[in-house]
């Protein structure tokens, strides 16, 4: 029993930290821009496709992951351009890009699935670097958790810093009150591009890291990923409330970890993998309902 609980906890932390980048990306559009950016359903597998293709081609894992982030940022910019320049509804713009990315991802990979079991990963490279100091570590679930945690903390700190800058404040204000920020002479088209690029860059990084951790990139790995990210963000907010950018970032990360724990528990009690979408829907509904019953002093 103790071994099972330990395995459950390690899986929760490992997958939670890897999907934490997804939570940060969804947080930007879902909370700051107030709309679900469906580009995530395409930029997540785009990150995995770009990273996997470059790894197979012999690129360094860090460079492959960075390229995945840049590809995700480009996808976000395209969505923003369709929305701002063509004046198309933001949800429709996301659907258009998501649909196009399915074919683009297939073109990048050349097939529906790329195995990575024999390819180097950022986790293995990080362990090799640490072993230069005589630590004698091996790549396993513990080192994966450590590396993913360090990367996630760095990404969270970067996000908190960015949204404290003038540009970051303008991006947040665009989502909160666009007419007001327009009256101050801010180019909201530019702030939307920045916000969507940053969001999809984080989401693509999550796809790249998950692909390296799972040992493959698959064309269908992004199905339902937006709902997963939204559920995680809402679970975190249900616990921490709405108290500022640092709290939002922390809530998104903790929400993803809790979400992965609840999914693991659902599988542990006997639910089939085909029931995971039902579990996600139930968790999303629960996260939406909890704030109504939270004590007033925690709101």
The DSSP helix count reads: 12
- What share of residues is helical? over 70%
Beta-sheet strand percentage?
A: under 5%
Give the biggest sheet.
2 strands, antiparallel
Radius of gyration over alpha carbons? 19 Å
What does this structure look like?
- This protein is mainly alpha-helical and 299 residues long.
- Helix content is 76%, strand content 2%.
- It is built from twelve helices and two strands, in the order ααααβαααααβααα.
- It has helices at 2-32, 40-56, 61-85, 90-109, 122-130, 141-162, 166-176, 178-183, 188-214, 225-240, 245-268, 276-293; strands at residues 113-115, 216-218.
- Strands 1-2 form a two-stranded antiparallel sheet.
- The chain is globular, with a radius of gyration of 19 Å.
- It starts with a helix and ends in a 6-residue tail after the last helix.
Furnish the topology, listing elements before pairings.
Layout: H1 2-32, H2 40-56, H3 61-85, H4 90-109, E1 113-115, H5 122-130, H6 141-162, H7 166-176, H8 178-183, H9 188-214, E2 216-218, H10 225-240, H11 245-268, H12 276-293
Helix pairs in contact: 1-6, 1-7, 1-9, 1-10, 1-11, 2-3, 2-4, 2-9, 3-4, 3-9, 5-6, 6-11, 7-9, 10-11, 10-12, 11-12
Features:
299 residues; mainly alpha; 12 helices; 76% helix; 2% strand
Short description:
The protein contains twelve helices and two strands.
């Amino acid at each position: 029993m103790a071994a099972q609980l330990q395995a459950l906890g390690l899986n929760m932390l490992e997958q939670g930290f890897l999907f934490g980048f997804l939570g940060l990306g969804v947080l930007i559009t879902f909370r700051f821009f107030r709309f679900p950016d469906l580009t995530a359903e395409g930029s997540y597998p785009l990150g995995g496709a770009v990273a996997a293709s470059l790894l197979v081609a012999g690129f360094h894992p860090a460079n492959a992951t960075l390229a995945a982030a840049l590809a995700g940022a480009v996808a976000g910019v395209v969505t923003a351009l369709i929305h701002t320049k063509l004046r198309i509804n933001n949800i429709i713009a996301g659907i258009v890009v998501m649909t196009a990315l399915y074919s683009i991802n297939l073109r990048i990979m050349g097939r529906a699935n790329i195995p990575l079991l024999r390819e180097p990963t950022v986790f293995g490279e990080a362990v090799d670097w640490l072993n230069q100091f005589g630590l004698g570590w091996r790549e396993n679930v513990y080192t994966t958790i450590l590396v993913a945690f360090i990367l996630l903390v760095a990404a969270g700190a970067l996000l908190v810093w960015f949204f404290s800058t003038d540009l970051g404040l303008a991006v947040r204000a665009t989502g909160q009150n666009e007419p007001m920020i327009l009256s101050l002479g801010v180019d909201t088209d530019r702030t939307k591009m920045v916000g969507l690029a940053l969001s999809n860059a984080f989401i693509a990084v999550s796809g790249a890291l998950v692909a390296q951790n799972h040992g493959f990139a698959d064309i269908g790995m992004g199905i339902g990923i937006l709902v997963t990210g939204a559920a995680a963000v809402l679970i975190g907010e249900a616990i921490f409330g709405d108290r500022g950018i640092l709290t939002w970032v922390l809530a998104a990360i903790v929400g993803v970890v809790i979400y992965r724990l609840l999914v693991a528990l659902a599988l542990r009690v006997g639910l089939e993998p085909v029931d995971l979408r039902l579990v996600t829907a139930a968790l999303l509904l629960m996260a939406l309902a909890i704030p109504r019953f939270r004590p007033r002093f925690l709101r």
